[in-house]
Amino acid sequence: MGIRTTTGRAHKAPADSRVTLAHIMSEHDTNLYGTIHGGVVMKLIDDAAAAAAGRHADGPAVTVSVNRMAFLSPVRAGDLLTVHAELERAGRTSMDVAVQVTAERWNASGPTTEVATAQLTFVAIDADGTPRGVPELTTAT
């Protein structure tokens, strides 16, 4: 639940929201070029970012915008994607989540390849879909 401050809002560290999602890519997700559709990767990014925002907000949060999205390297069937998401900013009701995606190539040994990065904004909502407050984000000192 975090530390309370004079603002009355709890504080949480970025690490408290950290989410790691892993997924083996399937040939069912390929496009005509034999690589994975960008939209499939974007869904994994949104899933991980939503989980991170929900952890920080202690409840549901919805995607408001994709502020930045970059595909850095193609993804192929058989690749093991790892999606890392963590809060980088918290407003009164909104949160920005940074996401990095790496791939372990199924047919190659060696280091993982960075395949995508993104930043998304979420808003915490109550049961009626109304925006609600979120904890402040602590910064490293």
From TrEMBL:
Gene3D superfamilies: Hotdog Thioesterase
Sorted UniProt keywords: Hydrolase
Protein name: Acyl-CoA thioesterase
One Gene Ontology cellular component annotation held by this UniProt entry: cytosol
PANTHER family the record matches: ACYL COENZYME A THIOESTER HYDROLASE, PROTEIN VDLD
Stored SUPFAM superfamilies: Thioesterase/thiol ester dehydrase-isomerase (SSF54637)
Family classification: Belongs to the acyl coenzyme A hydrolase family.
CDD domains listed in its UniProt record: BFIT_BACH
Pfam short name (any one): 4HBT
Domain HotDog ACOT-type: 15-128
Organism domain of life: Bacteria
Any one GO BP annotation for this protein: acyl-CoA metabolic process
GO MF, any single term: long-chain fatty acyl-CoA hydrolase activity
